From TrEMBL:
It comes from Hydrogenophaga defluvii. This is Y-family DNA polymerase. Pfam families: DUF4113, IMS, IMS_C, IMS_HHH. It comes from the Bacteria. Belongs to the DNA polymerase type-Y family. Gene3D superfamilies: 3.30.70.270, 5' to 3' exonuclease, C-terminal subdomain (1.10.150.20). Residues 1-145 form the UmuC domain. Keywords: DNA damage, DNA repair, SOS mutagenesis, SOS response.
Amino acid sequence: MGQPWFQIEHLVHSHGLVGLSANFTLYGDMSSRLMSLIAGYGHRTEVYSIDEAFCDLSGIPGDMTQRGFKIRARIERWLGLQCGIGIGATKTIAKLANHVSKDAERKPGSYPPELAQVCNLAALSPPDLQEIMRATAVGDVWGVGRRIGEQLTKLGVATALDLAQMDAGAVRRRWSVVLERTVLELQGTPCIALEDAPGAKKQIAVTRSFGNPVESLDGLLGAVSDFAARAGEKLRKQGSFAGQLHVFAHTSPFRPPPHFSRSVVVPLRKPTADSRSLVEAACAGIRFIFEPGHQIQKAGVILLDLAPSSLHQGELELEESDSSDKSILMTTVDSLNRKYGRGAVSVGGAGFGPKKEWAPRQMRLTPHYTTRLEDIPVARA
């Protein structure tokens, strides 16, 4: 995971490795289809990530394990996707069950084979559930990060069962309320509610590794301008303003020196979601940190200090300003881009054009099977 392609490219010939460029349009469309299928099997659904969701099955009669197999079969038949399904009394146990459903199939002997593909830990007896927790490393528990996992292991808390048997109050005092909730959830007490709508992000980031190294300031300005405009679109979508903008750039750690890695946080005069202000701030930050003579491989923009757009900061008008409502302009830009495709309307200088030196090469891009008419597969007898 995360290994550079050039280090494993030789496996194409020796082991038949298949390498593909990221196709985010295809992934997003397949994710939407997946979530719509899952939503039909429960009261409520929380989309946790692009490929994962929680579904509320409380009060639904019948065998939940068989229901899980029906969901899995429909997803595979309608979308051609395989998945693991975990069922539990709490979200943490359901995540544990999902982990078991995958490892029981992929790693024979790690868990009982009857728990493969669909694992219903709610149907197990307490002793059997304890055996599953005993076979699970503490680091594989949802909510236990690498650093905390190492601390727990040093204290002799090596398995999920060890963690579940800890005193919740002591865990809170030693670590945090977050880990305390994990312990209580493993004990069967629901502490993490199902979220019908995802909460607003506390940070919004748009970062990219370049298809070709960028050495010029103009090329770097075009890249971060594009990133800032994209971040602004995401910011407006969740109805927030940003108070600060973090911009960074660095060379590849896998290339010979000289290496370069710098960043800067640019405070905005007042919170905004206007792409023009964000692009201006990103360009100012890049001009401040740029040094010639380096092959920049990656750059990015991160919006910080986010707050709801309904909160307005009052200030004295000490300079001439355009009294027009800038939100109308940004709303129009977003509407046009949704209708005619991303990038149809952009901030001037935001890296637009058919050939960007910093754009991903995507030489192994798969077709847009589900969103582009000319890419729809055609079956012939």
